[in-house]
Design a protein that fits this description.
Elements: E1 7-12, H1 20-36, E2 38-43, H2 45-49, H3 56-73, E3 80-84, H4 89-99, H5 104-109, H6 111-120, H7 128-131, H8 133-143, E4 148-151, H9 156-173, E5 181-184, H10 213-221, H11 242-250, H12 254-266, H13 271-297, H14 300-328
Parallel strand pairs: 1-2, 2-3, 4-5
Helix pairs in contact: 3-13, 4-8, 4-14, 8-9, 10-13, 11-13
Bound molecules: tryptophan.
């Protein structure tokens, strides 16, 4: 069991609004974690740039959007330190030291990076920054001396890479850094509205936390269900049916969900009826989030000040670790 004083760090790439998949997979547990641990959340704009270098504005605009998402779901800046990566230059410095502790082969073999490279079809070659982003992510984690990193399964190779770098660092230069552990999210990844394995903005199958009620209604009505079910009285499949996966994740009345499942399997409930339930559940869930978002959005300066304050706090910790790192390496000259 992690100790009471454990420090948590996690992060998101600001490339678009956060969606239900983020909520179920990680944001929800952050709300619980911030009550128990010292929690840092990093808006990883430099990492986001590694595959959006031709469009920095997409990244900078979404720093604000992601911040609004955090605040509107209830991340509390008094409990969670929210920081933006590019404004903590100590992370970049540590990344440079870490570069020596990783081989090209390790990066090329990182399963998550490999899959992403296949999906992204970089024209004109793989940017070095992209290939090396696990090194920068290791620095994100190590600079805050986090011992726990709440992540989804796709991030496990990053944590493993971080652990290896930290071990090598400590072996060469002395025990300075903490070998972190992944805290795997309890709920597996949420599928997309199209039934594909992963909800993602780029796949166009996401329900965003900032979607209005009409948009949610439209998206749910168009959701993939059981393709083999042509008539409402045909017995249907609940497994692999995203409408039910969402209900499992978000409906607090699991009794009703069980009853709907039974009727669905027997063919005594229509797809439309199940979707009505989901629309209600989602809109009830999103309403208070929307209200908080609207209220924060009234004062953008105040919202950005929260980020500035969090970043300043994070930077103090980062500067301290970097000083220890340089001292351990004998590179604290003055
Ligand atoms: N790579 C993570 C993602 O794509 C985002 C991230 C950046 C992160 N830095 C981090 C996650 C540090 C955990 C810890 O979701």
């Amino acid at each position: 069991m992690p100790q009471a004083k454990s420090r948590i760090l996690t992060g998101d790439r600001p490339t678009g609004p956060l969606h239900l998949g983020h909520y179920v997979g990680s944001l929800k547990s952050r709300l619980e974690l911030q009550e128990k641990y010292e929690t840092y959340v990093l808006i990883a704009d430099i990492q986001a740039l590694t595959d959006n270098f031709d469009n920095p504005q997409k990244v900078s605009v979404n720093v604000y959007e992601v911040l609004l998402d955090y605040l509107s779901i209830g991340l509390d800046p008094k409990k969670t330190i929210i920081a933006v990566q590019s404004a903590v230059p100590e992370i970049a410095e540590l990344t440079v030291f870490f570069m020596n502790l990783v081989t090209l082969g390790q990066l090329e073999q990182n399963p998550t990076v490999k899959t992403e490279i296949e999906q992204k079809h970089f024209k004109g070659g793989i940017p070095l920054g992209f290939l090396a982003y696990p090194v920068s992510q290791a620095a994100d984690i190590a600079i805050f001396k986090a011992n726990l990193v709440p992540v989804g399964e796709d991030q496990l190779p990053m944590i493993e890479q971080t652990r290896e770098i930290v071990r090598r660092f400590n072996r060469y230069y002395g025990q300075v850094l903490i070998e972190p552990e992944a805290l795997l999210s309890k709920f597996p990844r949420l599928p997309g509205t199209d039934g594909k394995e992963k909800m993602s903005k780029s796949l166009g199958n996401a329900i965003n936390l900032c979607d209005d009620a009409k948009t949610v209604e439209k998206k749910v009505r168009g959701m993939y269900t059981d393709p083999a079910r042509v008539h409402a009285d045909t017995p249907g499949n609940v497994e692999g049916n995203p409408v039910f996966t969402y209900l499992d994740a978000l409906d607090s009345d699991q009794g009703i969900v069980e009853e709907l499942k039974t009727r669905y399997r027997k063919g005594t409930v229509t797809d439309a009826e199940v979707k009505e339930r989901l629309i209600k559940i989602l809109n009830d869930f999103l309403d208070p989030i929307r209200a908080r978002r609207a209220s924060f959005a009234k004062d953008k300066n105040a919202v950005m000040q929260i980020l500035a304050d969090g970043t300043a706090r994070a930077r103090k910790v980062a500067a301290q670790t970097l000083a220890e790192v340089k001292h351990a390496m004998g590179m604290d000259y003055f």
